[in-house]
Design brief:
The chain is an alpha/beta fold and 328 residues long. Helices cover 38% and strands 14% of the residues. The strands form two sheets. An eight-stranded parallel β-sheet has the order 3-4-5-6-7-8-9-10. It has a two-stranded antiparallel ribbon with strand order 1-2. The structure holds NADP nicotinamide-adenine-dinucleotide phosphate. NADP nicotinamide-adenine-dinucleotide phosphate binds next to α11.
C-alpha cells in the first residue's frame, strides 16, 4: 500500500482507502454486521488506514461497525465521518450550529471515540457554503477536542472552490473518475495551492466502471441504482456519476476493448484516478469481500500506456462529456 499526505492535515493516508456506505452488504439488503466486520478487518490488514463513513449510512449502523473495528485494531486508523444529511428538510435555513453540534456528538457516541479525525459537511445546500457561522462551529469543536479536522463533501466543483476559502477546511471529498473529469480542469490546482486534501468518492461510478454490469442487470428496490437514476432520492450525480446507464455501458464496452486482458475494470479505473498527484486518496465502496482484493491489490500492478490514456480521454470527450461535464 502507498500512503499520501492528506493535504494540510497531519495525516498520511492509504491511497486506496475504504468507503463504507455499503459495507453491511448490497444497498437495499439490510445491514449485515458480519459482512462489515470481515471487510473492515481485511481492509485494515491490507494497509487501509482511512475509512469514510457517515451518520446517515444505514441509519448509523455503518458508523457503529467502523467504530467497533477501529477501536479493536492495534493500528492507527483514521475515521472520516459526515454530518448534515440528517437535517430535514435539506434547506440552508434548517442548518444551524446547534443542530450540527448535536449530530457530531451523536457520531462520537456511535463511533465510541473521544475525537473524530475528520468530520465532513455532507453535501449541504450550496447556500451553506456562504455561512461563516457554520464553519465557525467546527473551530469550537476542534478547541473542545471533539474533532481533529474539518472537511467538506461537495456535489459541485464550485462548492469545493468556495469551501476552501475557509482556513479550517482541510479536505474536499469530490466525485472524480473516468466518467467525471471536470474537477481536474478547475479544482485540483486550487486545492494543491491551498494544500487541501482531495478525497475521491464514487471512483467506480457506483460500480458501472467495473465492466461487470449489462443491460439486464437488476438492482434491489432499496438500491439508489434502482431508485435514483433521475435524482428521485438525492442528487442524481451520486448514482453512476450522473451518466445515463445505457450510455455508460457503451463507454465501458469501449474501455474493455482497450484492456482485453482485464476481467474486471475496477483496478484500471482506480489506477487512472491515482495518476493524479493532487488526489490524496480514493474511497471505493465494497459490498463483499471479493471486491476488496481487486480494489486494494490488483490496482497496484496496472500500467496504462499513453495510447490507452489518449483513447480513454477520447471516450470521455466523445460519449460522456456532454451528459455530465457542465452539471457538476
Ligand atoms: N455525498 C457523499 O459524501 C457520498 C456519496 C456517495 C458515496 N460516498 C462515499 O464514497 C464511497 C464510494 O462511493 P460509492 O460506493 O457510492 O461508489 P463506488 O465506489 O464507485 O462503487 C461502489 C460499488 O461498486 C461495486 N464494486 C466495488 N468494487 C468492485 C469490484 N472490485 N468489482 C466489482 N464491483 C465492485 C459494488 O457494487 P455492488 O454492491 O453492486 O456489488 C459497490 O457497491 C462510499 O462507500 C461512501 O463512503 C460519499
Amino acid at each position: 500500500m502507498n500512503y499520501r499526505r492528506l493535504g494540510k492535515t497531519d495525516l498520511h493516508v492509504s491511497e486506496v482507502s475504504l468507503g463504507t456506505w455499503q459495507v453491511g452488504g448490497r444497498w437495499g439488503s439490510g445491514f449485515d454486521h458480519q459482512n462489515a466486520e470481515q471487510i473492515l478487518r481485511q481492509a485494515i490488514a491490507d494497509g487501509v488506514n482511512f475509512i469514510d463513513t457517515a451518520d446517515v449510512y444505514e441509519a448509523g449502523e455503518s458508523e457503529i461497525a467502523v467504530g467497533r473495528l477501529v477501536n479493536q485494531s492495534s493500528e492507527e486508523i483514521y475515521i472520516a465521518t459526515k454530518c448534515g444529511r440528517r437535517i430535514s428538510p435539506q434547506i440552508s435555513e434548517a442548518y444551524t450550529p446547534s443542530i450540527l453540534r448535536k449530530h457530531v456528538e451523536d457520531s462520537l457516541g456511535r463511533l465510541q471515540v473521544e475525537r473524530i479525525d475528520l468530520i465532513q459537511l455532507h453535501c449541504p445546500p450550496t447556500e451553506v457554503y456562504y455561512r461563516p457561522e457554520i464553519f465557525g462551529l467546527f473551530e469550537d469543536l476542534q478547541r473542545e477536542g471533539k474533532i481533529r479536522h474539518l472537511g467538506v463533501s461537495v456535489e459541485r466543483v464550485e462548492e469545493g472552490i468556495k469551501a476552501i476559502e475557509y482556513a479550517n477546511v482541510t479536505t474536499v471529498q469530490i466525485i472524480y473518475n473516468l466518467f467525471r473529469q471536470r474537477p481536474a480542469d478547475y479544482f485540483f490546482d486550487l486545492a494543491a495551492a491551498r494544500d487541501v486534501g482531495v478525497i475521491v468518492r464514487v471512483p467506480l461510478a457506483s460500480g458501472l466502471l467495473t465492466g461487470t454490469y449489462h443491460k439486464d442487470t437488476t438492482f434491489l428496490d432499496g438500491d439508489h441504482r434502482h431508485g435514483n437514476r433521475d435524482g428521485e432520492w438525492f442528487d442524481k450525480g451520486e448514482t453512476f456519476a450522473g451518466v445515463p446507464y445505457e450510455l455508460g455501458l457503451e463507454a465501458v464496452s469501449r474501455i474493455k476493448a482497450l484492456f482485453p486482458e482485464l476481467p474486471n475494470l475496477a483496478p484500471l479505473a482506480l489506477r487512472w484516478i491515482l495518476l493524479r498527484d493532487e488526489v490524496s486518496c480514493i474511497i471505493p465502496g465494497v459490498s463483499k469481500m471479493s471486491q476488496l482484493d481487486s480494489n486494494l491489490n490488483d490496482s497496484q500492478g496496472i500500467k496504462i500506456g499513453s495510447d490507452q490514456l489518449a483513447e480513454l480521454d477520447h471516450i470521455y470527450e466523445s460519449l460522456i462529456k456532454a451528459h455530465v461535464h457542465q452539471l457538476w
